[in-house]
Amino acid sequence: MSIKKNYKIKPDKLEKFISTVYEKCKLSKKHASIVAKGLVRADVRGVWSHGVVRAPIYCERILKKVANPKPKIKIKKIQRNILHVDGNNGLGFITSSIAMNECVKVAKKYGVGIAGIYNSNHFGMAANYLEIATKNNCIAWVFTASSPALPPHGAMAAHFGTAPFAFGSPTGNKNKPFILDMACSAVARGKLKFAAKSGKKIPFGLALDKFGKPTNDGAKAFEGIMLPFGGMKGAGISWMMDIIGGIFTGANHSGNVKNQFGNNFSGPANVGHFMICLKADLFQNKNQFLKKMEYGIKKVKKLKLAKNFKEILHPGEPEYRKEQMIKKQGVILSEDIVKDLNELGDSVGVKSPF
Ligand SMILES: NC(=O)c1ccc[n+]([C@@H]2O[C@H](COP(=O)([O-])OP(=O)(O)OC[C@H]3O[C@@H](n4cnc5c(N)ncnc54)[C@H](O)[C@@H]3O)[C@@H](O)[C@H]2O)c1
Predict the structure, then answer these.
(1) 126 CB within 6 A, ligand 1
(2) Domain identity same for 51 and 95
(3) pLDDT digits (tens, 9 = 90+) for 37-64
(4) 144 touches ligand 1 (CB under 6 Å)
(5) Whole-model pTM?
């Protein structure tokens, strides 16, 4: 077996490259920067399944004209703090960042901001939008519909998405918010894609092959059926995502969201997202809220440890730790990903930094 090489790169250098690539794909400088920041931020938090490994597929959708490089995003105010956002088939990073920033604005004024987004595309790592809220002292939930990947409980066919359930809250440490961002599948589908690419085995129990047989082969799993976490509970949440992200917002739903990673270039994906943003000091002053958050976290950390545990972390803390490490050492990318990024650069005439 050949040993594969890893490449290290500083996050800002990687971001500049990705941003230039997207500008070449006809995105405005501002929109290209939003997409590049969103992708690299995932790598910096160690969520590599939703990082630059995905840069080529979003570009391909634009170049094949099934996603719009110059979306005119329309925000309709249903109420002064309830927004219906038409993404005009722009990339999900752009529509969702704009929508969350608007939600924060109205939440600061009225306490709560809500946005339903339709005509969007895959938005990558949900934590990107939670972080916009938590940095602004807001609590947020982010929901999304996504393409068929896992079965409803009792079915043997991929129908609902692996759509992440995502919740964020500020804590006493402004750099370390509480971020619960988890796919409904036992593992994010992107991790299977990565395993498939790098030829790595995955644990049994995460996915079935296309014939419904348990598999530990990343490639077969990626082609097959993802399994939800917690049986009918994860399956129920993925259905909920389809209702709130898809049906409720006016986007595609019920198995009709186009699979961006399965070479379905037959038309716009019309992905829908839904966001709720609350001012954290809605019911008590900011300091009281943050102090109670810290108190709660400290109390949990002092609990008796379960077997084989050295400490207790809060959601978002593992990624914060990876971030500290990655900021120092750089983003590490595998040979396969670098090859794809080099090809991507060549295809649009941008010199790769590798
Ligand atoms: N856009 C989409 O359609 C889509 C679909 C699926 C997944 N995703 C993204 O995939 C990414 C990865 O999802 P995942 O489910 O593989 O994440 P994961 O399993 O790595 O982590 C899930 C959550 O558990 C927390 N966690 C992990 N270890 C912990 C520990 N030791 N103690 C306490 N908390 C801990 C993490 O902070 C995180 O909030 C997410 O960013 C998600 O938004 C996106």
Answers:
(1) yes
(2) no
(3) 999 999 999 999 899 999 999 999 999 9
(4) yes
(5) 0.95
